[in-house]
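TEACHING EXERCISE
Course module: macromolecular assemblies
Task: Read the component lines below, then compare them to the predicted structure of the full complex.
Student: A.B.
Group: 4
Components provided:
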Amino acid sequence: MSSRVRIKDVAAEADVSVTTVSHVLNQTPHTRVNEETRRRVLDVAARLNYRPNRVARSLRTQSSGMIGLLTEEFATTPHAGRIILGAQEAASRNNLTLAIINSALQADAVERRDDVAALLDRQVDGIIYATVFHDVVSPPAELRTVPSVLIGARDRTRRVSSVTPDERQGARDAVRSLVALGHRRIGFVANTTDVPATRGRRLGYLDALEEAGIEADPDLVAEGEAEAGGGFEAATALLDRPGERPTAIFCYNDRMAMGVYRAIGDHGLRIPDDISVIGFDDQEPIASGLYPGLTTVSLPHYEMGAWAVDSLVSQRDGDRAAGTHRLPCPLVHRGSVAPVGVSPA
Amino acid sequence: MSSRVRIKDVAAEADVSVTTVSHVLNQTPHTRVNEETRRRVLDVAARLNYRPNRVARSLRTQSSGMIGLLTEEFATTPHAGRIILGAQEAASRNNLTLAIINSALQADAVERRDDVAALLDRQVDGIIYATVFHDVVSPPAELRTVPSVLIGARDRTRRVSSVTPDERQGARDAVRSLVALGHRRIGFVANTTDVPATRGRRLGYLDALEEAGIEADPDLVAEGEAEAGGGFEAATALLDRPGERPTAIFCYNDRMAMGVYRAIGDHGLRIPDDISVIGFDDQEPIASGLYPGLTTVSLPHYEMGAWAVDSLVSQRDGDRAAGTHRLPCPLVHRGSVAPVGVSPA
DNA sequence: CTGAAAGCGCTTACAG
DNA sequence: CTGAAAGCGCTTACAG
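Instructor-supplied answer key:
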């Protein structure tokens, strides 16, 4: 450990008090320092390569400049990385450092409380509590002792702000885009489990049909597991049903879309000429790796991470209002959608 | 901000000195405390829900209990999340907290130095410097002022320990498994850019052939971009060449394998009956989403993250030896490999 | 077995 | 314009 230089070393070398060094370096408001002195302090600090000890400053100012990010079973959610990235970059912009703790999906209330406590022990200035697979959660009460925000779920007591993707809008826009291209027989390959996205995506699908005056047809909906295999099975069922085929299929997610592609290929049909396909999640490398590239709906993970940090900053600066925010899910155009009836067949 | 209870509050309530409270709570070695007193302190601490301020402790002990993880363009590497997870869980096991900073891939030396400095300002006990797309790097010299370790690349000066995946062994084992099933015409769908994995995977392929006494045949190798499209083109070229077809194809990565599947399907061939396929990366959701599931080689990201933290801990405890460590890349069996000649065709 | 006191490296009223 | 001093909340020799 090379002993780092402390503020008193700078003071001695510049022949001033530590008070003055602190004022100069921090540009303390309402404190005028002689220009000559200021320069000297700056010169010495630079020459000695002085860097203030943030731990000492934290203790004194009662503000650590750290933000805690609690993720829930990060491993299972491929997009968690984008949340972290968004949060990290927003934190850097605000001169904040991000500390991360991951708790197991099956962690109980006691464990989660311990994780929050560990962050609080480090005097974090705020906590982001990110979850998956839940609509509403009851985070440990200790969360509210500092500015806090939920990602991916709402707070049961509505006392903590939250930010979630607007799944319904995303699905609605996707299906609207199909309608705009003349599609009226639009299938829906749905998932079976009840996660937050399930309801929103289904409602968005129905919204768009209703807007367009298209009656929802149960024969155009098939369910499966939210994986490629489930998508294959659902699409196969859809295509094998008697009656007119759908001209487009909206999928619960990109994984299912992967299976839908295969089912369509197995039926000797082509995307998008015979059938248009839209996914959800914009999950790489599926979306761009499929052929043709999958038109899909993107989840605002990066944006939610950044929004959460910004919310923490406003809370720190006095904003007391807790609210629920939905961030838009934009449609990403690739090559799997075409106007209806373009096929020469 | 609810004013948290401090050690002096516990001392006052238990009618002892803060010294005693500290000794009891920290179980200071070689310090005996009267059992009655000990119980009382413990009771009061629990009742007041006292939690020591880690910032104050850090300042006093000159040890923050924090580890800094510097990731390089996290966004572009889908597996970074597993590194973070491995590091985070290992950190938790060692009662350490993980602070994360992400630097842009195109960040210059000055920016990287700033990122390291920001971590050092927080008095981190160690730094993990994770990179992608490099064989050898020259991290900022400041890195060596604390225990440090590189993930994904070696240190040019060999003074910092590093941990990397054993790409060559992974590729060798994959191709060996093909040889063991009787394959002798084993194609290689290679990538074009020169990243660390490129050389190792190619060498591993050649190793296995040589071991088996199979002469490397340039006609069985085709290159492409390391994406699904590149894999499709390379495999198409391979299958369209005059002469005997390969009975198996080893792919540079899973993305390319995705395109290889399509090319094989377009040629009216079946996996694994007509051609076996092995990928590399075990990248979800490709690997399990393809049909049949892709047999592939897994990258030890989680393990590298954990190894890095453990290395930091040993360094802190006195281990001075810097070294280069390679972690094995295990073969993951799914459904894309079969013995040669199983096809009735 | 227990406690008074110093000190980690800063910032910040306060005084001059 | 500048500095002496207190104090953030702990730990740890040291003394008794």
